[in-house]
Amino acid sequence: MKQEPTSIASTRIAFIGGGNMASAIIGGLIQQGLDGSRIAVVEPLAEQRERLESRYGVTTLEAAGPELQGFDLVVWAVKPQIIKQVATDCAQHLAGALHLSVAAGIRSDSLAAWLGSERIVRAMPNTPALVGQGMTGLYARTAVVAADRGLIEAVIGTTGQYLWVEREADLDAVTALSGSGPAYVFYFLEAMRQAGTEMGLSAETATRLAIGTFAGAARLAQDASEPPEVLRERVTSKGGTTYAALCSLEDSGVKASFVKALHAASQRAKELGDEFGA
Ligand SMILES: NC(=O)C1=CN([C@@H]2O[C@H](COP(=O)(O)OP(=O)(O)OC[C@H]3O[C@@H](n4cnc5c(N)ncnc54)[C@H](O)[C@@H]3O)[C@@H](O)[C@H]2O)C=CC1
Ligand SMILES: O=C(O)[C@@H]1CCC=N1
Q: How much distance in Å is there from the Cα of 229 to the middle of ligand 2?
């Protein structure tokens, strides 16, 4: 039987950590009509708390306390290096909640041990969530029921696309591809801007050309039925300009280096889980 989409309108959501990733998800929720009064954010930095309150109308707390009792969903958005301490300190106030952690590398076994709960979902979002264009990988422990999955999909769906992975270890690869991915795109944009200015364009013109090209190529790849290599070949005339550029990239081992870089990111995700897990 097909399940009805979950409504988030009556959900109360607590965020532990109110930085970049929390702000991106809160922004999505507010844009989709969730009332800010249904969101509480635990955030030690006063400046950050003021920003969240004025921008989104959410309630903020300097530290977790009994006020968090009865929230339906708790989103863990602190750095992996401190999540153990924070989770251990807060667990007593969060009984009965569904937990969603965005912390890179931190495995659900660790979270379950610290929180004394099995209702745990891990998410690996990315910063385009800020503009509703996020790409998130999700993993649920076996104790997470369909209704809980529905709630997570409704929440993360406010920030863009998502997909579920069956094996938790795959989240390390998701982290390397899409979690860290926006940084690679910005890195290429920087390189294209540098080349453009070296060739005499203004930085503004070069940046506009580069961003427009990324957006257009991504859209083309999304809509096309052919794989990226076919789309690439269509740009590449024999003996032409693209061919010259691609030969230079191959000579410099750029693709191999890029693949290696993503392996490094995935390996680091695994290490974060080993270093800062239970
Ligand atoms: N930034 C990104 O692109 C992505 C980040 N993540 C994950 O999201 C998590 C948060 O990362 P960001 O938002 O980028 O970091 P951030 O540094 O912007 O946010 C973390 C927030 O936690 C707050 N904090 C520190 N101690 C706290 C405590 N005891 N209780 C509550 N809050 C506390 C900090 O003041 C800060 O505002 C990390 O675990 C990271 O792995 C996941 C996907 C993408
Ligand atoms: O760099 C990091 O560790 C986090 C996880 C994915 C993106 N940023």
A: 28
Beta strands in the chain (DSSP E): 13-16, 39-42, 59-61, 73-76, 98-101, 120-124, 134-140, 160-164
23 Cα nearest atom in ligand 1: 13
Alpha carbon dihedral 127, 128, 133, 139, in 10-degree steps, equals -20
Asked if residue 180 has its Cβ within 6 Å of ligand 2, the reply is yes
Which residues on neighbouring strands pair with residue 75, listed in sequence order? 15, 100
Nearest-CA residue for atom 3 of ligand 2: 104
Task: State the CATH number of the domain containing residue 265.
Answer: 1.10.3730.10
- SS3 at position 14: strand
* 31 and 162 co-located in one domain: yes
**Are residue 128 and residue 203 in the same domain, yes or no?**
no
pTM for the full predicted model:
0.95
pLDDT of residue 100: 98
Pocket test for ligand 2, best of 174, 180, 186 (most atoms within 8 A of CB): 180
CA 69 – ligand 1 centroid, Å: 22
Q: Contact at 8 Å (CB) between 17 and 61?
A: no
| Residue among 97, 86, 98, 93 at smallest CA distance from 123 | 98
Q: How many percent of the chain have pLDDT more than 90? A: 94
